[in-house]
Specification:
Helix content: 10-25%
Pfam families: GGACT (PF06094)
Structural class: alpha+beta
Number of strands: 6
Radius of gyration: 15 Å
Number of domains: 1
Protein name: Gamma-glutamylcyclotransferase AIG2-like domain-containing protein
Largest sheet: 5 strands, mixed, barrel
Strand content: 35-45%
CATH architecture: Roll
InterPro entries: AIG2-like_dom, GGCT-like, GGCT-like_sf
CATH superfamily: Gamma-glutamyl cyclotransferase-like
CATH topology: Hypothetical upf0131 protein ytfp
Distance between the termini: 52 Å
CATH class: Alpha Beta
Length: 146
């Protein structure tokens, strides 16, 4: 049986503690759990991350908003997703993610960098080998202050 998609996997500015999270996931009924997904994570020159399919692990959060289908159009605008075949910055896909607190696997919406734009990633972006953007930012701040 295919389980329904109830939440979104986020790995960048939509995680708790970042401005986009506060702006989009305001509802008290939103549940947030630590999670991981299969893929590779890059830090873009614009200052935010991009996930692409790959054999690595991306660390993030699984968010179940009070009304997922009310939130998705807002997320689509933020992520530059115009629909299948559109001139997208990110594509919205469904992928299995693992909840870190229980090991449970759930299906989630997540935004991956558009396949049309991936050729530039290796040239213009930095691969985050450990797959954790929050950790990457902490490490970069330590380098800058040290």
């Amino acid at each position: 049986m295919i389980t329904p998609v109830e939440g979104v996997f986020v790995y960048g500015t939509l995680m708790t503690g970042f401005e986009n999270h506060k702006h989009i996931f305001r509802a008290k009924s939103t549940r947030v759990r630590p999670a991981k997904a299969r893929g590779l994570l890059y830090h873009l020159a614009e200052g935010y991350p991009a996930m692409v399919p790959g054999e690595g692990t991306v660390i993030g959060e699984y968010i179940v908003p009070g009304d997922l289908y009310q939130v998705l159009p807002v997320l689509d605008r933020l992520e530059g997703y115009r629909g299948p075949g559109g001139n997208n910055l990110y594509d919205r896909v469904i992928q299995e993610v693992e909840l870190l607190d229980t090991g449970e696997r759930v299906r989630a919406y997540l935004y991956v960098y558009s396949s049309d734009r991936r050729a530039q990633l290796k040239k213009e972006s930095l691969l985050i080998e450990h797959g954790d953007w929050r950790r990457f930012l902490r490490e970069e701040n330590l380098k800058a202050s040290g």
